Amino acid sequence: MTAYNDESGTDGALRRSLGVSRRRFLSTCTAAAATAIAAPAFGASPALAQPTPDQGQGVGLSLVPEDRRGIILYTVRDATGRDPLTTTLPSGFREVFGELARYGYKQVEFAGYGQHANAPGGSNLESVEGAKLLRSWLDEYGLRAQGNHGFIPSSWPLNQSDLDRFKLHLEIANILGMEHMGTGGDPTGSAYRADWDVAADKWNTLGQIAQGAGLKLYTHNHDAAYGFLLDGGPLDAQGRPTRSSGIRKLEYFLQVTDPKTVWLEMDIFWAHVAQYKFHTYTAHDGSQQENIFDPAALVRGNTKRYPLFHAKDGVVNTNSGNGYDMVPFGTGAIDYRTFFRRVGAKNYHNPMVEQDNAPSSTVPAQSLNHARIGYDNLAALRK
Length: 383
Prior knowledge:
Elements: H1 10-18, H2 22-32, E1 70-72, H3 77-80, H4 92-103, E2 107-110, H5 128-140, E3 144-148, H6 160-176, E4 180-183, H7 193-212, E5 216-221, E6 232-235, E7 241-243, H8 249-256, E8 262-267, H9 268-277, E9 280-282, E10 288-290, H10 295-301, E11 308-311, E12 313-316, E13 324-327, H11 336-343, E14 350-353, H12 366-379
Parallel strand pairs: 1-2, 1-14, 2-3, 4-5, 5-8, 8-11, 11-14
Antiparallel strand pairs: 6-7, 9-10, 12-13
Helix pairs in contact: 4-5, 5-6, 7-8, 10-11
């Protein structure tokens, strides 16, 4: 019986646009039909976990060194926000740090400094004293803070109030021992080159301030930032360009910002969504052009500008405008083994496991269970 492999059909085209192998495409399409992923019992070893080299059972060299395995706390925001007086589950920063350290994580990335009011330290730790308390808990569990999606001034030119708060966040980052401080948003939501020029001026200035505090300032980007820049062709009624040279917005940002002071954090999931969504553009002459986005190639060409990643996974969903649905890290279709091999510099990049939809209103332990699955699958990646 001859195996049939139709690379010319719809599935083949979609698979290629998503950058996944045929086997992974077929398996994840099957997985996408499920409406939920069964999580293991809280504290138990997940069924999807693989042996790690730290257990002496691994084969090959780890693609993500043990001291580089991290998680953004947004993944477990329900746990840090839980009332410790009403649950036996880990709650608040201190207990969640202990749980994540038990799974094996060595790094965390903050998504703000708020927790439940009944947790030790109170609800708001966005202060010098709060940072000192957080640092004591990080040290207690052998964790390192590697970044934060914190405050980036919206004003430009800077007003004094925004500048003072920005400097407070730099001080907090230094107390926490971070190398990086950033934001969860794009430099601008605009598609126009002129607005990206303004954003570049702002980020170059903020980056210099951060550098003076010994920190690398980074922007975290979703799919829209990889859309095509509008930079030419006929102008619209407002005098704005309507067509593109084919350069992507974030590629342009990399060109016009200072590589010594402005850094980036690629959310690998959203970069693959962009690969799926943004593959054709209207050129200045009105012709339709194809340009398939290659996330790993962008990083490889700008390796030192990507100290941080969000390691987020997804299963293929052909009915979704994004092309993927989020799932626990290591259970989806994104080929992280190939991605990490291609970008190289494994002792420089810091992958942070993230799953936006990990918290559950009906399964309180789910986000921490998924965090554990994510760690085990991150540790299992081999050359």
